[in-house]
């Protein structure tokens, strides 16, 4: 069970991951030791899992091919979908992986430097995993928003800089 | 042509806003961090914006009643009743205005006659005094102090009252100080006013933005005060709707009559879309138990603590505000004037603050910093200010 302090820390970190423990303590009306302990516990419990920089690669020269792949699988006795998911997530090409409700079972987001590499990943590695019964690949053409951040029109402050 | 002969001298006598100058400089510094912003850093929640878009699609492009949309006035009545325990009749005691700003002007024009004095806590928002002058009255600043939480005390009020005193403006939670007044403190002011004909214009635009368990009291909810009070409020701060320009004025019918008359002949009504959006904002607040407001307040509260701590840590004593989204630290220790401090800070460290003097003479020795800005920018601004201040003390 997360305390109010835990929740506040998470909210602030989502807004600014570079914040210090002291600043967190000030903002939550707590002290540094309590905040450190809370963060340590949340790391241990797999709640605080990491910090990432969001890059809009489409604005750089780097070639990148991205696709989402719908995967149908034959779930295994005892292990269900987890065993297959475990295997799929090992590949570097796989950026994220979800178990889904609906028409297919797993959603794989993957990326590669070239179309050929991505194609190779799908037909010679993903499709041949035992238990995978079908795949459907959709290429991503453009990123508008990712992880809550708008990519295409970067958030600019539209406010008047100085107002009474 | 000699314009000084043709222009209204009363208007010409009002000096330009002291803030304008800073605005012009900030515009020229692209990477300046502005703590001078006087509005929320949230965009109006999408469902509210969506309601306005829908109203455009439906062709709701007409005037509304001079009073404002009936549905909106019903919501406002319910809001004031349930939230602040004060009852106004939506039929003739609630007037939807173009921002609370219009309400200030209406109140002054409805009340003030030449020679009348209007008491204004100092420092305060920049519009009160000019509106009093435009209406032909005399603004009388009443100095408030950090040690009193920038509240106005009954003694200070009593000392400022003269036979010409027409009204008292009560702007709490206060811009620029962030000061609030408790029910008890307001009751003490009410005792001074009881039995007099002094009116109260209570500008409660920041009523939702209060912290540390402070409970906002509408002045009109204090026994006996409703008859002398014009309550002003709006949607800008609580619902992040500054650009929509929707506020409201509430008062007993006899007081409302002249205000309504001015509004009817000059403004007609606030924009349809603004009113539709405002109506949606309240409807949503009722349904969600003010979830959007609560989230915004929680977010401001964290930043408020960061700023107060930051200023005190750099040696600038900072009163702990319990309202609005401003901190008002004292820069006395630097020995600089507010204006010199802000100008030099902006030019040497690219951080824009507003000198306290923009809000009245009593603002000398203070600066106003808005924390309605991202945590990242606030931290960077504090760092820059710390290095600036270190060289001054």
Layout of helices and strands:
The complex is a heterodimer of chains A (164) and B (393).
Chain A: H1 4-15, H2 21-28, H3 32-44, E1 65-73, H4 82-89, E2 94-99, E3 106-112, H5 115-126, E4 132-139, E5 145-146, E6 149-150
Helix pairs in contact in A: 2-3
Chain B: H1 3-6, H2 9-12, H3 20-28, E1 33-34, H4 46-57, H5 70-84, E2 94-97, H6 99-111, E3 117-122, H7 128-134, E4 138-143, H8 154-160, E5 165-170, H9 183-193, E6 199-203, E7 229-234, E8 247-250, H10 253-266, H11 272-287, H12 291-313, E9 326-327, H13 338-349, E10 351-352, E11 354-355, E12 367-370, H14 375-390
Parallel strand pairs in B: 1-10, 3-4, 3-5, 5-6, 6-7
Antiparallel strand pairs in B: 2-8, 7-8, 9-12, 11-12
What does this structure look like?
With 164 residues, chain A is α+β, with helices and mostly antiparallel strands. Chain A folds into two domains: 4-44, Arc Repressor Mutant, subunit A (Orthogonal Bundle); 57-141, Alpha-Beta Plaits, CATH 3.30.70. Helices cover 32% and strands 21% of the residues of chain A. The longest helix of chain A has 13 residues, at 32-44. The radius of gyration of chain A is 21 Å and the shape is flat. Chain B has 393 residues and is of the alpha/beta class. Chain B folds into two domains: 3-44 and 291-390, Aspartate Aminotransferase, domain 1 (Alpha-Beta Complex), CATH 3.90.1150.10; 46-287, Type I PLP-dependent aspartate aminotransferase-like (Major domain) (Aspartate Aminotransferase, domain 2, 3-Layer(aba) Sandwich), CATH 3.40.640. Helices cover 41% and strands 12% of the residues of chain B. In chain B, the strands form three sheets. A seven-stranded mixed β-sheet of chain B has the order 2-8-7-6-5-3-4, sandwiched between helices. A three-stranded antiparallel β-sheet of chain B has the order 9-12-11, with helices on one face. In chain B, strands 1-10 form a two-stranded parallel sheet. In chain B, helix 6 (99-111) packs across helix 7 (128-134) and helix 6 (99-111) crosses helix 10 (253-266). The termini of chain B are far apart. The A-B interface holds A 8, 11-12, 15-16, 18-19, 23, 26-29, 157, 159-164 and B 17, 19, 22-23, 26-27, 32, 34, 36-39, 41, 125-127, 175, 298-299, 302-303, 305-306, 309, 352, 354, 358-359, 374-376, 379.
